[in-house]
Amino acid sequence: MVQRFHGIDRHKRSSTISVLNREGVEVAFIASCASFSTYIEKLGAEDAVVMEVGMGSFWWADKIESKGASCYVIDPYRFRIIKDSWKKTDKHDSRTMAKALWVQTVSGEFGLPVVWKPTVLIRELRKLFAQYMDLNVHICMLKNRVQSLAVENGITLTLMQKKELLSPRTGAETLGKLELSDASRLAVRMNQEILWGVVKQKELLAQEILRMGSPLAKEVKLLLTIKGVTFLTALAFLADVGDVRRFRTLRKMNAYLGLVPRLRESGQKSHAGHINRASRSLTRTLLTQSVNKALEGSAALRRFYEQVRERSGTGRARIAVIRKLCGVMRQMLLKGEGFRETKEELYAKKLRLYERRLEELKGEQKSA
Asked: What's the pTM?
């Protein structure tokens, strides 16, 4: 039975900790705990800990649970006792969390807004995908910079010229043919070299994502039955969602992925606004690039897209398709069934490529 309740307001260099006993009386208070790891070593099965979600929270939660203690990671934006409090200090927050944990455990009259703790695999994949998206941003910036340097010298690049200028095979030759100032030529060459290096790192990162996501091969193969969904898109969806069974409804999952529009209601009127961007955006971003392929591979999705586009425009129609596509993937994972409109020849090709790349990565890992 839990005998001690620890409310921890954790920061980068120190933590404020309040400890209550079974009667709800504070038996210890640490205003500034400099060594959080040392404090954790003293915990055991009679301890329960609550702390706010933040950088490293799940890592520390694993450490706490490894000592036999229970750990609750809460969302401070949903914990109204702290969110709406006029008194916002570390001391007050730690004591409030400890008291709330005590009330929940002893009386069961209160529920902490606990966040879902991803598995280690999902957390590691999310780190890699965050880096992958950062590289995409850098690549876009470098490409735009090269094009702007050409425009500054009165040159409007055609699509073919731009492709050749940004390619490591033809970039140097194409650059030599352009009439640029010395400074612009130097800047373009430097941006080219940086770009090619970043692209190479992105390719290596994609391989690492594939290798790390190999335990999810069964789910990935299922999602590959949808045209336009690559192994990278499938792993991004799995990394974002984690376990689809934790969402009771499709709307809750889509809201988590940032695919549900904000709704304002007043009286008899309701207005659907823009989608909520304060959420996970990885799946939404990658599926945006796959919408056209998905529409080519499904007559039902194409009909749905045309209906929404006629009513609400192209932008909202694309988001609606992504939302529906996520719902389809959720059902596929729940039922363990492939896409009903699978293009068998294309799927076989994608499957062979995926399995071959997995085998290559396993071979490289063994040789290393």
From this structure: 0.87
